[in-house]
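Q: What would this chain look like folded?
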Amino acid sequence: MVHIPSGHFIFGTNKKDETAEALSMGIPKPWYADESPRQKVFLKGFYIDTFEVTNERYKKYVDATEAVPPGNWKDNNFIAGKDKEPVTWVTWFDAANFCQWAEKKLPSEKQWERAAKGTNGNEYPWGNEFQPNIAYLSNRAGSKNKPVAVGSFPKSASKEGIHDLIGNVWEWVADDYKPYKGSTHKNDYYDSGYKIIRGHSASDIGHFPMYANAIKKFARSGYRQFANPDEPGPDVGFRCASENKPTAVKTGLSLSGQPANSSAATGTIEKPASLNTASKTAAPFNPFAPKPNLPDSGILVLTLLAFIAGVFSFLSPCTLPILPAYFAVTAQTDRARMGMMSLAFFFGLASLFVAMGASASVLGQLLRDYMFQISQIGGGIVVVFGVMTLFGKGFSG
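A: My prediction, written as structure tokens:
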């Protein structure tokens, strides 16, 4: 473990997403929105694990307490060769119980951020410059990264020697998802039972426009994400902290996570009996999945709307400003819908060119005679779609 001395540090930020960059990428929460206001916080000294808890360490806990193993283990054991990788497929309750057994606890959000930011409020554990190659992060859309052994990217360690605070796997912390003191940001998910995860993982985050810039924001030391404490994931792990010097440190024992006396920890943090039974084939954890306010429309309706948008896109210059937002929204839906809507959009555009090319036909004559009226109608429809997009409904409403 690493000792963090008592002192002040910069918690949160006063930055704002002035250009609405997040929304332009189809991300509903503006950058920095739930990280304000900036505060100078005093923390008592504490200890925090140098590395995330590994499968090897978690196995000792499972053997000592007969706890239910993670969902990706086989025959009560982790997959061979993955002993040094961070344990995943654990709920918040599993993580909290492990730390309690080890005579520690999950770090608070402030403790975790202090460990990552240092005393100067650094954007990243290694400094203020984003260097994606020194941390284990997803470097392109569609990448299928899996956890690697802890400490594999030593250059990403903090100034105090804490590894993998950014990259590899997300980390559970103790706190509920709620606004910081003095925050004016409103969020429907505040105080709804969700827990905070920190640190960003190496998993693919989706097909965002400007993917590299999205990663740059997600990988910041101050970035907050939330998750259901009952739901484990393939890229969510944890590390432990302690305000007092742990027994293993006092006695000079190995910092494997096993306390000197495994019976010293009493009681467990209650959780539903159904936890830890997640299917091994469950979809990868994606905290950035959109949560629309309206139920999804049928794919046929969406396809028809996309076709109409394609037809009128050439007739009205009003369409051009909303096209980036249109593609940002569709990029956040599933691939089948995105593919169908894109095809329908371009078929609509192609149909318009074909129709306009039939200048000798009746349709061509009508287009020539009523071009202005058709453009007005097209502009009206585009305005409706634009308003829907601005209010977050897009084509999925």
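Residues 335-357 form the longest helix (23 residues).
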